[in-house]
Amino acid sequence: MTTSQTAFLSEILGLTEVIPAGKKAYFQERFRNRLFEFLVTEFEKRRADDPEFTQAALAKRLEKRPEQINRWLSAPSNLTADTLSDLLLGIRAAEPEIGATVLSEKVPQNYREPDWLTSPPIGYAQVDNSARSIENIVPVAPLSISVGARK
Amino acid sequence: MSIRLMIKEWVNSGELIFLTPLLDFIPIRREIFVSKEILEALDGPWASRTDEKNAGRARALLDRFTEGAKISVRLPPSRDVTAQLALLEGAKDQVWEFRCCESTPQIRIFGHFADKDLFVAFFLVNRNDIPTYADFHPLKEECKRRWRKYFPTYPTRVGSEADDYVSNCVSV
Q1: Sign of CA dihedral A48, A50, A51, A55
Q2: To the nearest whole percent, how much of chain B has pLDDT over 90?
Q3: How many other C-beta atoms lie within 10 A of the C-beta of residue A74?
Q4: CB B34, CB A4: distance < 8 Å
Q5: Torsion angles phi and psi, residue A124, rounded to 5
Q6: In the predicted model, is pLDDT for residue B11 greater than 50?
Q7: Record: contact A134-B19, CB cut-off 8 A
Q8: Most A CBs within 10 Å: which of B46, B102, B116, B167, as the mutation test of the A interface?
Q9: What is the pTM of this model?
Q10: Is B172 in Cβ contact with A113 (below 8 Å)?
Q11: Which residues of B touch A27 (CB under 8 A)?
Q12: Quick one: CA dihedral A13, A18, A19, A20, positive or negative?
């Protein structure tokens, strides 16, 4: 099996130990990915309310090149705090709410591998994965920061 | 026998490994299986600090895939260079790459979709080692060869749009 969480987080949860470069990189990439999902979700919400709101409209609003907006909404990137602020203002007239969750306090998942990988052979018992289908799962909040409308 | 049972056989033999997310609060909403060589590259030990950081970034991307996070997907004829997951040119071959664009050098992880949200990854390559488009050809052939080795009678997943392969995606 692969590295366990306990081993992976050992230095991080130690609070005083040096955190290895690979582990910092893991969380940096994860954070970038979560920010990307957050922004795209905000953009999609705006589009749902206002189908005429396009990336081009956002570019115009923020006085940016359309290609730059496209890059930010196409893949995770190393956004600055200023860019994040601008994008949220431009997309939803919103600002981020900041928060943090201690890793050791997060609730572990019951399933650590697919059901079908550990289930008995077909004929022993039927495996029903329908409930695990991604469409049937309510999405979790993509980021621990949320947005509040500008007052 | 379904493709999942076939994968399970390879897992039982140790040839493929289910990539369990490193953090146990990450839910499993998609599935990715990797070869031993990929697991070794991700888990270390690494030859350098750069390799270690690149492995960390690549692992985060793959864990986000498993988590069911929103992911940007490129299908030809799009040539978007920012997509996190891309179907390579010559779409009939159904060879895909995960792109870890923030790492230096960029890392590409090659494999095939066995089903929607079910990816089998065979090997990874530094983007610097693929200087031209022509250099993708032998990598695609190697990927296809490995699929045939593991799943000789099974086709890969075939679709016409990103959502046929990946849920919760952004098509770029």
Answers
A1: negative
A2: 81
A3: 21
A4: no
A5: -80, -50
A6: yes
A7: no
A8: B102
A9: 0.87
A10: no
A11: 60
A12: negative
